Amino acid sequence: MKKLEAIIRPEAFQTLRQNLDELGVKGLTVSEVAGCGQQKGQEGIFRGSRFEIKLYPKVKVEMVVEEQEVDPIINVITETCATNEVGDGKIFISTIDEVYRIRTGETGKAALI
Ligand SMILES: Nc1ncnc2c1ncn2[C@@H]1O[C@H](COP(=O)(O)OP(=O)(O)OP(=O)(O)O)[C@@H](O)[C@H]1O
Ligand SMILES: [Mg+2]
Description:
This protein is an alpha+beta fold. The protein has helices at residues 13-23, 70-81, 108-112; strands at residues 2-8, 29-35, 56-65, 90-95. The protein contains three helices and four strands; from the N terminus they run βαββαβα.
């Protein structure tokens, strides 16, 4: 099992949610977050300028899925969220050891779907 954490522009979220639903992604966790990347929150950097680090509002979407779903989800996220401007976001992928469904006690794949 893998976890995808996608940090995206807030305005991309509704379309992404719809496209993920069409792909069959059922379970997800969404948070409103603030962050900065390479540009440290600067929209444009010019030589010699002093700047303070600004945080931009972003949406974080977390999904735990089976391994074979990772590539199709990455494709949907990139197709939906790319504007090709800085700040489009990132996707972090990690391995999940176990999942429990609290109601039934199911674990692993059975607890995911
Ligand atoms: N290394 C990181 N660790 C944790 N969160 C990050 C990291 N890089 C980016 N983020 C998160 O992703 C958001 C969007 O980052 P952003 O798209 O600006 O990344 P970038 O690496 O600067 O890419 P780009 O050059 O396309 O802007 C940030 O606001 C922050 O919340
Ligand atoms: Mg950036």
